[in-house]
Amino acid sequence: MSLRGTGQGGAIGRTLEIIEVLGGAGILWPRYLAALAKAAGRYGSTPAAGFSASAARRPDDVGLIDEVGPPLTFGEIERRTNALARGLAAAGVKAGDGVGLFARNHRGFVEPMIALNKLGANALLLNTGFAAPQLSEVLAREECRVVLYDEEFTSIVETGANDRTRILTLSSGSGGQPSIEDLIAKHDGSALEAPPKHGRITILTSGTTGTPKGARREPKRTGLDSLVGLLGRMPLRVNEKTLIAAPAFHSWGGVHLLLASILSCTIVLRKRFDPEDTLAAIDEYRPDVLAVVPVMIQRIVALPPDVIARYQARSLRVVAASGSALPGELALRWMDTFGDNLYNFYGSTEIAQATIAMPDELRAVPGTAGRPPRGTTVRVLDENGKDVPTGVIGRIFVGNDNQFDGYTGGGGKEVLHGLMSSGDVGHFDQNGLLFVDGRDDDMIISGGENVFPREVEDLLTNHPAVNEAAVIGVPDTEFGQRLKAFVVLENNGATDAESLKNYVKEHLARYKVPRQIVFLEELPRNPTGKVLKRLLREQA
What we know:
There is one protein chain. By secondary structure, the protein is of the alpha/beta class. It is built from 18 helices and 25 strands. The strands form five sheets. It has an eight-stranded mixed β-sheet, with helices on both faces. Strands 1, 16, 17, 18, 19 and 20 form a six-stranded antiparallel β-sheet that branches. Helix 14 (about 330-340) links the parallel strand 13 (about 320) and strand 14. Helix 4 crosses helix 8 (about 180-185) and helix 6 packs across helix 7 (about 155-160). The protein starts with a strand and ends with a helix. The mean pLDDT is about 90.
């Protein structure tokens, strides 16, 4: 089955939809469009374009709030990043150079990103969970001569990047290493010449199965259909406030940094995620939008009810979740606690957007990934590249104009019929809603039967005594593979392995019952919340 995200029929209907969606978002003001068009012409579709346009429209309004210093206005961000760009140029950075950015969520991530955009340099966003060997390997592969980093990562950088130019993004001032604040203080903040070419941004894949790959994304203008489709299913608006809890180095955090800049939204950042601190920030700053990965939702709703009750979260219109699977039961728990404001975005670093589930869809059919927005095509194909019937599991292929431009080390994702493989398998239901059943390489064949772990994981997670679960296949001499589950309980001793096996047996076919259940204090995850099943397999 295939679905294309569409709106009203015909040219008139399409025009009316564009006017309705963009007008509702506040984009159709002539001054807004003129400022954005001018900035996009200089810097392409990058945060520099959004922040520069915002500085032209709203120079005295607050553009960024973090824990590092006083709030920064859009005008201050514009001047500071102009000065930083000049400082980086004096340090030898020029258009086309690769620069690694190794920082948490604060101004020391945002301002260097903008400055690099203004120089036309290529920004490599580094995972803050890296150890020195990973850092060294990725910097060498991506040919980065310069690394910008938070002081807390000094020992990692000194080991993994000691032969590169090093500049601190967040500094106590006691280490002697030059910092971005030093560069800003020493250079002129007046307007810059446009770069000779637009720089690109390279986002690293999650690396759940090995060394992260660099996903190259050239700065190109987003198609009108894609923008209308995104805003039509996730109603973001200009001049609002966005709290980005998801890591900014990850594609989901990066998307919201870009969107917030384009929409002239005030961005609120916290260096580290903490569930109660996030609620406190929502209570204090009253954001309209919260960008999270699902494990953050899980940790917030797991707080004691009396802790949640201390904070007011009624300002949230849009809670945008992506980065890993969102269990249906978790979506309902969030909306029962904080209201029907949850949007589940399915996509990846490579394929960009695929589908978005809106709150009413998550209420009606928990666990759905939703529908394709306008400008996106999704097809579910069999092993011969043909569409599968409704309800049948197949490989998910996606087409839109925001997809990545290939891996920096060469190669890309499989393409069929002009659509790119998501690497997942799933199915459409009779109402055209997509469900993601798992990774296409995660399928377990046990006794000749195909099992996708997601179904068993979701069922286990629905058990009242279970907080989270992960299922893998392990070798078995009789059945080829057998299922092994790793479970984190809500409270130690709340249930046992036999009870959970019986629970699965009551709801699913016998061949889907895990032969072994191991209880853990927590599942191994990367900084974006994805479960590292390779580590679980090493334990098996």
